[in-house]
């Protein structure tokens, strides 16, 4: 939570200049993270409307609130869900497929076993992980209209995609209202909508994984969603001295071990940016480059343990490095 606060502050510090003319703003906690919304629109209640929508989705998606769509689905194996829940699951399953399973909504039993939900962290035995892996596999999830059905013993979690989906909903609402500009920070998933009041592009800070409340550089953009996933956001150090992060490799059932500290993805879709930032963290530096060449439709910024910044081709002109401790590769 502290780390998320600093992430939030880092983005905020960078976003403050040039925000004159903003009509409404909101700061609150939802989806287990800090969020801040700043909107320039004719409707002075716009930020409050966006907040209400995010809070509605949070209630539907929470795997731990009894009675939520996801809690009911996981408890009963099948459930009638809200149109938004059905839509986010359906669209995310297509992304799981496109990503060859590096994103998998069904890893939840494994995420739970490692203690990432209860925060009572522990290293499961290899046998336990092997047994839990048999209860995973996104392709076995069925969505028919508003009914979602899971195989016996399965459970899902939208943690990797919920903030991105919420960002998309907010952007759709801003379009309907003809808002001129907005910057929405949903705990590290940032929607840069329209332009600043002076007509300039938004600048979105890229958090320094090593230092609180700092950023190593920023991206200039407009009408994009910038999502970051990092091993530094939620992790624990086991009795074996190994650091285990909250992103699981669905093939092994173990937290990802890699040279990457964070992956930022920039695209037109919040769901895509959020899904890809998690999945490219699983795929690693080479896997991310291969996926970029084969699929496209997004840009990325990778931060490595050697303080190197790896950029995809299309983001070079929009990224500015501000911290000399880091070096741009290639
Ligand atoms: P954050 O919530 O910090 O922004 P992510 O968007 O990267 O992080 O999502 C991580 C969350 O998604 C984890 O807390 C876990 O609940 C879930 N998760 C972990 N690994 C995977 C995976 N490979 N595929 C789908 N969901 C995952
Ligand atoms: Mg994600």
Written description of the protein model:
The chain has 330 residues and is an alpha+beta fold. The protein is built from eight helices and 17 strands. It has a nine-stranded mixed sheet with strand order 1-2-6-7-10-13-14-15-17, sandwiched between helices. Strands 3-5-4 form a three-stranded antiparallel sheet. The protein starts with a helix and ends with a strand. Adenosine-5'-diphosphate binds next to helix 8.
Question: Characteristics of this structure?
Answer:
330 residues; alpha+beta; 9-stranded mixed beta sheet; 3-stranded antiparallel beta sheet; 8 helices; globular; binds adenosine-5'-diphosphate; binds magnesium ion
What would a concise description of this structure say?
The chain is an alpha+beta fold. It contains eight helices and 17 strands. The protein has helices spanning 2-15, 46-61, 69-76, 83-98, 108-113, 126-133, 162-176, 270-295; strands at residues 24-30, 33-40, 78-80, 142-144, 147-149, 181-186, 189-194, 202-207, 215-221, 224-230, 235-237, 243-245, 260-267, 299-304, 308-311, 319-321, 327-328.
Total beta strands: 17
Shape: globular
State the share of residues found in helices, binned by percent: 25-40%
Radius of gyration: 19 Å
Q: Would you spell out the secondary-structure blueprint of this structure?
A:
Elements: H1 2-15, E1 24-30, E2 33-40, H2 46-61, H3 69-76, E3 78-80, H4 83-98, H5 108-113, H6 126-133, E4 142-144, E5 147-149, H7 162-176, E6 181-186, E7 189-194, E8 202-207, E9 215-221, E10 224-230, E11 235-237, E12 243-245, E13 260-267, H8 270-295, E14 299-304, E15 308-311, E16 319-321, E17 327-328
Parallel strand pairs: 15-17
Antiparallel strand pairs: 1-2, 2-6, 3-5, 4-5, 6-7, 7-10, 8-9, 9-16, 10-13, 11-12, 13-14, 14-15
Helix pairs in contact: 2-7, 4-8, 7-8
The structure holds adenosine-5'-diphosphate (ADP) and magnesium ion.
The site of magnesium ion has 6 residues, from strand 10 and helix 8.
